[in-house]
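Researcher: Please generate the 3D structure of the following complex. Treat every line as part of one assembly.
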Amino acid sequence: MSVSEFFAMGGYAFFVWGSYGVTAAFILIELLLVMNKKRSLLHSIFRAAKLNRE
Amino acid sequence: MKQRHKRLALVLGGVAALTVVATLIFNAVNSNMQFFFSPSQVVAKEAPVNASFRLGGLVKEGSLERENDGLTVHFLVTDNAEDVQVTYVGILPDLFREGQGVVTQGAFNGEGNFVASEVLAKHDETYMPPEVADALEKVKQQQKAEGGTI
Amino acid sequence: MKIFTKAYWLQWSSPKTFYPTAGKMIPWFMISGLILTIIGLYYSFFVAPTDYQQGESYRIMFIHVPAAWMSMWLYFVMCIYASIGLIWRTRLSDMMAGAIAPTGAIFTFIALWTGSLWGKPTWGTYWVWDARLTSELILLFLYFGFIALRAAIDDPQRAARASALLALVGVINLPIIYFSVKWWNTLHQGASISIDSAPTMAATMFTAMLLMTFAFWMYSIGIALMRVRNEILEKEKNASWVQELLRDGK
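Model: Done. Output below.
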């Protein structure tokens, strides 16, 4: 099986890669959103703590 | 402690009551949950007579005829008890095959012919490599041949 | 035995104890999820053979079925947490239910999306209103309702109670999704994998599907724990233990 044959998926490339691609994108975006949320939470808590000390 | 038990009973009771209600509702609307009518139901006059409905079953082996225009097809939809003659003009889905499942949307014309406006293929839940399918087919043919000679 | 005492179980329902423990567990779930995904994808594309009817298009199954299973399983787990919260009034259980919901909704969407892309080349249509597809779509709306209701009510206790009730009402949809292909005639095919019979697919296909299922499962636990930690931080940001934790640089 050649590389181009693999990507052609027997003529079903749009459907197969459309499925796997969207799945991967959703999981990655979910991960990034949750990690970003944590970063901004820590940031705001740090800032509040600093203000308290000053 | 007592309060918690009461809440537990309430939750369990609620779920049980809901199950009963849902069962009743789904029993009542059961016929509306069906996606298609089988040929037997059509013959028994359970399907709408003058309206469009979905007819589902298997494409009868050896019944598929294509007209010369390349678009018009005739085939029988069967549930192994009754057959219905179907005519369709258009492109068939990739998995449309004789002996495989099919669901068609359409209505009867005056002459007892079901004219479909849409044909969908219904595949089964069996998945296997082509070599295995070939081997199975060979065994089936062999059994048929042996059955014929004995 | 320690695990039979009430105190042992109560400590886990305290956000303060749970926060660091969850933090230690997350990498394990995420790493095993990643490893399972890599092996699962290898099986899905290079080990599992071409299908005799559908050719290569059936490979969508390796994410479609695990995603659909997870969409139902996560809803079930979410309901368990929601009802524990409802009965014992433990705050952490409500937080867990809330942390699972978005991932459940995502897997429901993935199941619908991949199913649609699988339906076009095989059935000849992206969508039909048969019992299986419709009930799975209702599941997506149940997740949306749960998330929205939880966010809409300001008082956390009332939000937890209302959303838990909604989740419990919706649990009736799970057997409907699962058995829809048995109870009614549908365009969707029946189950290839069931408890009472051998799988109707080649062994390597089955392996690929199981690998992807466990990969999604591990990921779901990992991301839910990450999300619940965020929620704990947000709710307890003024608590002394959070301040101490941050001072220690964790």
